[in-house]
Write a structure and sequence with these properties.
elongated; 3 strands; alpha+beta
Length: 127
């Protein structure tokens, strides 16, 4: 029994040592995140998507959200410059957002009429 306790304690100390060594080294591995930061970013992404979906005036079905170290990146398409600006405003008001990279593009007139963002789309193709 005492031997099992000693082996268990030794295994726990070794495991804790490995976990303690697995940290984010900002100088060398700035592209990596700790597990806690990764989870925080996932939660922040969900909060931002929810805030965009809760907008009374604008809905943003073609806007994608990604988060890295508290910075939210918006990509996708909207119809008007006002929608692009409103999306950024909504995101800036979400708690824990450190910055916003608004890379949303405006749909061209043809895309809004056709309902596609594919520049190779040809509505006059033979059937």
């Amino acid at each position: 029994m005492k031997r099992k306790l000693i082996l268990f304690s030794l295994a726990t100390v070794v495991a804790a040592g490995f976990v303690g060594c697995a940290h984010d080294n900002a100088d060398r591995d700035s592209h990596k995140r700790t597990t806690g930061r990764y989870i925080d970013d996932k939660m922040l992404t969900m909060k931002v998507k929810s805030a965009l979906g809760d907008s009374d005036v604008y809905k943003f079905p073609h806007v994608d959200v990604s988060t890295f170290n508290g910075t939210v990146q918006l990509t996708g398409f909207v119809d008007t410059p006002e929608q692009k600006q409103k999306a950024e405003e909504i995101v800036r008001n979400v708690r824990d957002v450190s910055s916003v990279q608004n890379q949303i593009s405006l749909k061209g007139d043809t895309e809004r009429v056709r309902g596609t963002t594919d520049p190779n789309y040809n509505n006059t193709a033979p059937k």
